[in-house]
Design goal:
5-stranded parallel sheet, alpha/beta, Rossmann fold
């Protein structure tokens, strides 16, 4: 979803080809190895401020009717029900690959003491705030639904589709918010916390939800594992917590590749390995406020798992925790490949899937990610507990291209007749860079684990604190 913006070289200045390759690989390696600890680069929705705001104003002007003022007045009492000063708790849902973070959020949607935005609509909140910081709070709130993420119009998910809310209700809730809080100090209204908080409150009021508590829990779909975003959340909500969803690394490798092949093309395999080696641990200094749950348990042991999640978050147990919804409407998973759809728990999803992972790949993943298999209770040959076996396996297997790399090469070869010679050469160069990156990432990761150890995410959602 996030793209890297690059500066154009000075006109008339020709950079040596060696310099281009060196700089390109340096940027590529930095993005693979350290992106987790830095604020993500500006996403593809970095529109100019005025056109975005103008679009929002035109849209909401068309939604205005003679009843708009009365509609806003009806929202005022709903806004006043929230104790903003006491809303100090939020929980971020993060993923490790394709591990069910959206599914987990959907089970929390129907709880009467939770407010949230559906799906991934809250994911870019902090990036949006940083990029459009100069906008007033009012303008941020009306502009946020209109960003286009990678050419996907955000407003379609806000005001159209299965889990939509009425645009008139959203605009009325924004106006009602300023009737109640418009006289607050500017330093508060223009703060990052105020935007995050009021966006969730406005959305909650617009959808017609009435939480039982005046300070409900906010569920924030962070999804991607990023330390800077985590620090933002804790700074804004001192009692913030993090739940990471994890999945069998064998299945995760193959499923994640299916997503990354579309978004990253020839470099997809390298991004898969990069993600698997950094998203399996808590954010730095957030260990005490972090818990993990298994994707498989959301399908095989749903009631027990959601009961443990509710207990850890201090939420009373509700039967709604077993229903997969957004905005009260059933959430249906539609895979990118195939025609089968489903909603909620589906035991077949919990079976280990090796369709994109060969025997040698499995051995390599067992050797490098052994701590993940053990900590998360996934089947793994016990012989890999010995450091000698792990090192020897990696030395033998590491130089063999992974199945996901072979699939990527085949995809390139199929496109040769239509894409041209230059495209082919660039693709081959990227594949070679990706192979070098995969070998480097796995070798460094194994060395780091054997030499210094690694604290991976722990499955500890059952206890109260």
């Amino acid at each position: 979803m996030l793209g890297k913006s690059e500066k154009l070289p000075n006109a008339g200045v020709s950079e040596p080809i060696e310099g281009k390759l060196s700089n390109g690989f340096h940027r590529f390696w930095k993005r693979l190895s350290s992106g987790r600890n830095e604020l993500p680069p500006l996403p593809a929705w970095g529109h100019a401020q005025e056109p975005l705001l103008q679009r929002a104003r035109v849209f909401f002007r068309a939604e205005e009717t003679n009843a708009s003022q009365a509609l806003a007045a009806s929202k005022i009492e709903e806004i006043r029900r929230f104790d903003v000063a006491a809303m100090q708790t939020a929980v971020a849902i993060c993923n490790c690959g394709t591990s069910g973070s959206v599914l987990l959020a959907s089970y929390l949607d129907g709880h009467d003491d939770v407010i949230m935005l559906p799906g991934q609509l809250s994911t870019p909140i902090y990036l949006f705030f940083d990029h459009y910081r100069s906008l007033s709070l009012h303008d941020k709130l009306i502009a946020y639904p209109f960003v286009a993420i990678d050419l996907d119009d955000h407003s379609k998910h806000f005001f159209q589709g299965e889990h939509r809310i009425a645009a008139a209700d959203y605009h009325a809730a924004v106006n009602a918010l300023f009737d109640v809080y418009g006289d607050r100090p500017p330093e508060f209204l223009e703060s990052r916390r105020a935007f995050f908080l009021f966006l969730h409150i406005v959305y909650c009021v617009a959808r017609g939800q009435r939480p039982t508590s005046p300070h409900p829990l906010i569920v924030y779909a962070q999804h991607g594992s990023n330390a800077q975003l985590a620090r933002y959340l804790v700074a804004d909500f001192p009692q913030a917590r993090f739940i990471h969803t994890v999945r069998d690394p064998i299945t995760n490798c193959g499923r994640l590749f299916e997503h990354y092949l579309i978004s990253h093309g020839f470099l997809g395999p390298a991004h898969v390995i990069s993600h698997l080696t950094y998203a399996d641990m808590p954010h730095a200094k957030m260990e005490s406020r972090t818990r993990a749950i298994r994707f498989e348990d959301l399908h095989l042991h749903l009631e027990e798992t959601m009961g443990a999640v509710a207990a850890w978050l201090g939420l009373p147990y509700r039967s709604s925790l077993l229903e997969s919804t957004f905005n009260g409407v059933q959430w249906v998973w539609r895979p990118r490949t195939g025609t089968t759809t489903w909603s909620g728990a589906r035991p077949a999803q919990a079976i280990r899937d090796s369709r994109n992972v060969s025997f040698t790949d499995r051995c390599l993943l067992f050797a490098v990610l052994y701590e993940d298999f053990v900590a998360w209770n996934y089947p793994c040959p016990r012989i890999f507990k010995h450091a000698f076996v792990r090192v020897l396996t990696s030395m033998v297997v590491l130089l063999i291209p992974m199945k996901i790399e072979i699939i990527t090469v085949r995809t390139l070869l199929k496109s040769l007749p239509s894409r041209g010679f230059r495209y082919t050469i660039k693709g081959l160069v990227r594949i070679c860079l990706g192979r070098l990156a995969i070998v480097s990432l796995l070798a460094v990761e194994l060395y780091r684990r054997l030499a210094f150890g690694k604290q991976v995410l722990e499955l500890r959602t059952g206890e109260r604190e």
